[in-house]
From TrEMBL:
<feature type="compositionally biased region" description="Polar residues">
    <location>
        <begin position="12"/>
        <end position="23"/>
    </location>
</feature>
<dbReference type="InterPro" id="IPR002347">
    <property type="entry name" value="SDR_fam"/>
</dbReference>
<comment type="similarity">
    <text>Belongs to the short-chain dehydrogenases/reductases (SDR) family.</text>
</comment>
<dbReference type="InterPro" id="IPR020904">
    <property type="entry name" value="Sc_DH/Rdtase_CS"/>
</dbReference>
<keyword id="KW-0560">Oxidoreductase</keyword>
<dbReference type="Pfam" id="PF13561">
    <property type="entry name" value="adh_short_C2"/>
</dbReference>
<dbReference type="InterPro" id="IPR036291">
    <property type="entry name" value="NAD(P)-bd_dom_sf"/>
</dbReference>
<feature type="region of interest" description="Disordered">
    <location>
        <begin position="1"/>
        <end position="37"/>
    </location>
</feature>
<protein>
    <submittedName>
        <fullName>NAD(P)-dependent oxidoreductase</fullName>
    </submittedName>
</protein>
<dbReference type="GO" id="GO:0016614">
    <property type="term" value="F:oxidoreductase activity, acting on CH-OH group of donors"/>
</dbReference>
Length: 286
């Protein structure tokens, strides 16, 4: 399967965060492969950043496994509607919830919307993120620093706190961290710092919630072709994106989504506090 995937990307750039999948060339691969197993039948999953990229691929994969979906997104209406349409084509419901996960009030209303629509919540995928490259720490303004942390890590605290009254034994919390949490990134110092915080958050929360039977794990993708890439980097940087990993190419969202499916199913019943690494072959110190 991977041998047929493109190894290079044409130069391109987007001027807004977190980016639009509709504007990307080529479009990311999001559709799940193989036959559905209905491993999430009856479950309800809330996915932040679920309109595009990794979140979209996870949503599609969960729908194929029988889950009912709620997708949180910022303002990428066209991407969100397309994802909803594709999920509904699998005979799965999909609730769209637009808003800013950096707001605790919004996170409260998002969880309430899920409970109003479905009456339960089984899987929380904290995936929404933004990044703003800077050549020097001196270029990172106080506003950018707060915005990055509020979107990438504060939101996880907000959503977990709001979800806790509704999560029961066997529920799953899955957080998206990054390979940058382990190897760093000189151009994404604030972003990488949030991703390192997510690793510590995952490990700490998993210990706190283990007695309640709630599993907390994370996924640390490497270079994946998502809207965040053309929205963050120049055309030249996009053209060389992902070529420095051992597999020699960027990954596609559908190559990451199976990790989230596994962590949401009974196959991961003896895993908590762990991080999976779909990163194209980079060796990281876990």
């Amino acid at each position: 399967m991977s041998e047929t995937r493109p190894e290079g990307l044409p130069p391109q750039h987007q001027t807004h965060q977190p980016g639009s999948e509709q504007e990307m060339q080529p479009r990311p691969h999001s559709a799940p492969a193989g036959e559905p197993g209905r491993r999430l039948a009856g479950k309800v999953a809330l996915i932040t950043g679920g309109d595009s990229g990794i979140g979209r691929a996870v949503a599609l994969a969960y729908a194929r496994e029988g889950a009912r979906l709620a997708i949180v997104y910022l303002d990428e209406e066209e991407d969100a509607r397309q994802t909803q349409k594709d999920i509904q084509a699998m005979d799965a419901p999909c609730l769209l919830i637009p808003g800013d996960v950096g707001s605790p009030d919004f996170c409260r209303s998002a969880v309430r919307a899920v409970m109003d629509a479905y009456g339960r919540l089984d899987v929380l995928v904290n995936n929404a993120a933004q990044q703003y490259p800077a050549q020097s720490i001196e270029q990172i303004s106080a506003e950018q620093l707060e915005h990055t942390f509020r979107t990438n890590i504060f939101s996880m605290f907000y959503l977990v706190k709001e979800a806790m009254p509704f999560l029961t034994r066997g529920a799953r919390i899955i957080n998206t961290t990054s390979v940058t949490a382990y190897r760093g990134s000189k151009h994404l110092v604030d972003y990488a710092a949030t991703k390192g915080a997510i690793v510590a958050f995952t490990r700490s929360l998993s210990q706190q919630l283990a007695p309640a039977g709630i599993h907390v794990n994370a996924v640390a993708p490497g270079p994946i072709w998502t809207p965040l890439i053309p929205a963050s980097f120049s055309e030249e940087e996009v053209a060389s994106f992902g070529k420095n990993v051992p597999l020699g190419r960027p990954g596609q969202p559908d190559e990451v989504a199976p990790a989230y499916v596994f962590l949401a199913t009974e196959g991961a019943s003896y895993m908590t506090g762990q991080v999976l690494h779909p990163n194209g072959g980079e060796i990281v110190n876990t």
